[in-house]
Amino acid sequence: MNRALSQRIDRDYVKVSRMGAATLAAIGYLLVCGYAALAISKGWTLIPLWIGLAVVTAYSVIDIWAVPSIRYSRFQYELFEEELELQYGLIIIKNVLVPMVRVQHVELESGPLMRKFKLASVAVVTAATTHRIKGLKLEKAEELKRKIGQLAKVDDQHE
């Protein structure tokens, strides 16, 4: 088996992940502040406020600082002639082999934050599930999409 590619995601994806997690954390803090205002005006107990504040803060620390770096360091993929191999996970490391004959189509995805950093994700769709390689430079993602499409003999007519 000849190895066609052996790659990692782009380092900028850590920034994008942190920005997305920070946005969710800000929404969490807004909800906590909303409860605080309501609880003070209605004379309710502040115990849920402190619990909510602790949960949002713990989430923020973990999801903004730890998770993106761990994901970056653990995610790897290799493209071979007959399969795509993915390795990922935070606590439990998964190693998935996707046979090219099972690939139904390949998609390129890019949200607003990813577009700002010129990043994209490649989604490899099989009958069973969708496998995503998130955080590739746009040019690299387009090249990978074409290469997987060629190896899987996927028709490019739907684009």
3D architecture notes:
The chain has 159 residues and is an alpha+beta fold. The chain folds into two domains: 12-71; 80-152, PH-domain like (Roll), CATH 2.30.29. It is built from four helices and seven strands. A four-stranded antiparallel beta sheet has the order 1-2-3-4. A three-stranded antiparallel beta sheet has the order 5-6-7. It is elongated. Mean pLDDT is 91; it is low at 1-5.
> According to CATH, what is the class of the largest domain?
Mainly Beta
What oligomeric state best describes the polypeptide chains here? single chain
Spatially, the strands of the biggest sheet line up as 1-2-3-4
Helix content: 40-55%
Q: Give the ordered list of helices and strands.
A: EHHEEEEHEEH
State Rg: 20 Å
CATH architecture annotation of the largest domain: Roll
**How would you sum up the major sheet?**
4 strands, antiparallel
The chain-level structural class is alpha+beta
Straight-line distance between termini: 31 Å
Tally of helical segments:
4
CATH topology of the largest domain: PH-domain like
In round numbers, the mean pLDDT is: 91
